[in-house]
Amino acid sequence: MKILLFANTDWYLFNFRLPLAQALQSEGHEVLLLSPAGKYVAELHQAGFRWVEFGLSRSGMNPFSELAAIGRLARLYRSEQPDLVHHFTVKCVLYGSIAARLAGVGAVVNAVTGLGHVFSGGDIKARLLRPWLSLFYRLALRRTQTIFQNRDDRAVFIDGGLVSPADSHVIFGSGVDVSRFSPAAQGLRGSTAQVLMASRLLWSKGVGDFVAAARQVHSRFPQAVFLLAGAPDEGSPDVIPQETLEHWRQEGHVVFLGHRDDMKELLQQADLFVLPSCYGEGVPRSLIEAAASGLALVAYDMPGSREVVRDGVNGLLVPARDRERLAEAVLTLLDNDRLRAAMGAKSREIACETFSVLPIIEKTLQVYQVALKC
After folding, report:
1. Does residue 186 lie within any of the structural domains?
2. pLDDT of amino acid 65
């Protein structure tokens, strides 16, 4: 059987869906990976996969070029003749579903990996686009199987009539390798308290709130070190301007690490993980990796985040955009080593039981069987 996986970046395929592609290949399926070109293409080839370039503008709004993209995709599907296509990220889901229908592809699986800025943002552009995007989803998702990463997003789509309960499923993210992301060896963590956040540098990811919390915590806990791993996403309208980032660097409350490929090591050296995101996450991968690494967690009480953070069990949930409460939650856990350690142990347990990559892949393959029977 030929299975095509389509995402809006090669980075997404490599970092989030490579284990799925490997599992499919090990079962004897032909796997084709499709995305715009990027620096991870060589990694995908090296992993033994055929990759095909498909140019797609993440933020393009010109109706003629966007319709042309759907036409190009339909022609590619007719040429490749996949038995099943699996789409990830918004444009790939919408355009891929329509292209698959035009090309006569029999089985279509869509992954709604969070509701994103249009559904969660409060700016005029987001509010204007929301009803149109909802209509587009309603048309595109007909006669497809749709996977959501959290229960809240599925409920939004069912209540809005965008999907039916029978054709929608919840699978908590893409999974994490809990043998790779694991707690630090005894004594590995340093003497200073390290508070880590990992995220694209977007306003809606809560970077500004993290900086504000660091300022407040430092007034009472000056020895804490706040670390932020991540780079600006220049393709997003929500990106934080460079001048703002430079101002924060000059303040010195947060150490900006930039993009990092050593998240395992960063997590093993951290004492606490914080993600004050209001973005409209599916299930934040960074929270799952932190949980697998045995860290207590602090996050806003938002869809996706609340699937990983059990308030009072393995971390603390804070009302969205409440910077004061965010700082207090961080201080609570920095001040109580025993509580932080107990929550970290619970995080590891939850990650192994709920977010391990192999059960996640197995559930995905079960949805494939449903799609193939429809």
Report:
1. no
2. 83
Compute the distance between CA of residue 179 and CA of residue 176 in angstroms, rounded to an integer.
9
Neighbouring C-beta atoms of residue 266, cutoff 10 Å: 20
Determine whether 29 is exposed, middle or buried from the number of CB atoms within 10 Å of its CB (0-12, 13-18, 19+).
middle
3-state SS assignment for residue 82: coil
pLDDT (tens digit, 9 = 90+) per residue, 273-298?
999 999 888 899 999 999 999 999 99
Calpha distance 8→12 (Å, rounded): 7
Q: Does one domain contain both 321 and 250?
A: yes
Cβ atoms of 140 and 94 within 8 Å: the answer is yes
One-letter amino acid at 60 equals: G
Contacts of 217 (CB under 8 A, 6+ apart): 195, 224, 226, 327, 330, 331, 334
Range of the domain at 281: 194-354
Number of Cβ atoms within 10 Å of the Cβ of 261: 9
Query: Which percentage of the chain shows pLDDT scores above 70?
Result: 93
Question: What's the CA gap between 218 and 206, in Å, rounded?
Answer: 18
Provide the token pair at 139: 């048309």
The answer to whether residues 109 and 219 belong to one domain is no
Query: How many other C-beta atoms are found inside a 10 Å radius of the C-beta of residue 238?
Result: 18
| Rg (the chain; Cα; Å) | 21
CA 186 to CA 174: how far, in whole Å?
29
**Amino acid of residue 250:** Q
Alpha carbons 247 and 224: distance in angstroms, whole number: 20
Q: What pLDDT score does 90 carry?
A: 87
Nearest by Cα to 290 from 370, 181, 192: 181
Q: Which amino acid is at 179?
A: S
Q: Is the pLDDT of residue 186 over 60?
A: no
* Tally of CA atoms within 13 A in the half-sphere of 188 that contains its CB: 15
Give 34's strand partners: 6, 52
CATH number of the CATH domain containing 19: 3.40.50.2000
Q: How far is Cα 103 from Cα 142, in angstroms, rounded to an integer?
A: 15
pTM: 0.89
| Nearest by Cα to 309 from 320, 298, 319, 323 | 298
